[in-house]
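Can you give me the bound-state structure? Components:
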Amino acid sequence: MAISVWEQSTYFAPKDLVIVGCGFVGLWTAYEAIHQNPKLNITILERGTIPSGASTRNAGFSCFGSVSELISDIQLMGEAAMLETVKMRYDGLQRIQEVFKAKEIDYNQWGGYELFEGKKTSKNKKASKANKGVSSDESGLYDISKLESDIAYLNKILAPALKTPKKNGKYLPIYTNASKDIKKLGFQGIEALAFNQLEGQLNSAKLVLALQKAVQAKGVQILFNTEVKKFKSHKKGVTITTNLEAVLETKQFLVCTNGFAKQLIPSLDVVPARGQVFVTEPIKNLKFKGCFHFDEGYYYFRNLGNRLLLGGARNADFKNEKTYSLETSATIQKVLEDFMMQRILPKGSKKPKIELRWSGTMGMGSIKKPIIEQLQPNVYCAVRMSGMGVAIAPIVAKKALKLMKG
Ligand SMILES: Cc1cc2nc3c(=O)[nH]c(=O)nc-3n(C[C@H](O)[C@H](O)[C@H](O)COP(=O)(O)OP(=O)(O)OC[C@H]3O[C@@H](n4cnc5c(N)ncnc54)[C@H](O)[C@@H]3O)c2cc1C
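Here's the bound-state model for the whole set.
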């Protein structure tokens, strides 16, 4: 469709900033930019009819890390890098709550738990094999004899770094040992439980919509069904070619396509990682409320009213989950269903019907850190959220804007 002269001077007129990707990172960047400078002319380009990456397709957690995940992060990247990412997650979650009312985004701070199968013993090894897929990597089994000391250590370093709430001048513990609650919650084969009082859950699509509404109210234009095909940086800005007839000119161009980043910029260290989820029918007497993690965060579940929302298990088939496909796979769905019956629901429970199954595309890489960089004159990227984008997007946005101003 050829564009009209009116369209050329409005929708497709030169912009100050064009953002590609209408997920949390693109939207938060537009939000912070337009609040810093209301005169900016900003357009977001999104190839889906609705945002079609991870932001509306995740599990609706607002978490900043479970005990075993953070301990594993320290082993992989060191204590300072772990603290830096956790601080971004915590500060990002605070920013979400500062900008939006809990009711608007169904935010509930019911806390989060981490479930532990137990110490690696020959008995556990056998059980793990029998429950194929519950923990695909036996070497990853957490040694629960370390739980108390790990909790004490994490509380000691995290509370001052994050500046979490205090009582009588002392930081309240973030994590506590909640193993006494296992029976009450009805789990099977679980030997220890850690509780994080600061974790919450939200409706991620409501958050996307609230952000959309907020930026559009300030004049930001969002063009859906518009796929960026290529871009060319030049002295005065960037020329963007899309699936539409019109060519867009912008002073600055920011790529926020996360897991899809390599499709536009092949040199980036970003691989797609599919995250699969399902929701059951209502379950009578569902015994728990809140967010739950298992196996360094590879498995996650929560209540959705009286339904169970369960996702993850990417580590049961890493190779095939490195995909842009938004289908679900029978292999992972079976592993999740086994986990539901063998760990989450009380022994002897009737298997609930699965009402919905879906997946979303995350962006991972060799390290668990976002890439916020200038790539060419006037071309920037803020990608590779490493499965933490709900939480870190508001902070990534601020960092990207700082870089662009510089
Ligand atoms: C199952 C699952 C569970 C998760 N759990 C958590 C969690 O517990 N905590 C947490 O913090 N995070 C979690 N995440 C991750 C979080 O959802 C993502 O990190 C975050 O949504 C990424 O936001 P984004 O804006 O960077 O990318 P996306 O939301 O993926 O947005 C990128 C957008 O770019 C668009 N796009 C791509 N290429 C083009 C192009 N060429 N032209 C135009 N548009 C394009 C896509 O359609 C997409 O809408 C989870 C994700 C999944 C899938």
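A couple of observations. Confidence is low (pLDDT under 50) at residues 120-139. The first helix runs from residue 5 to 8.
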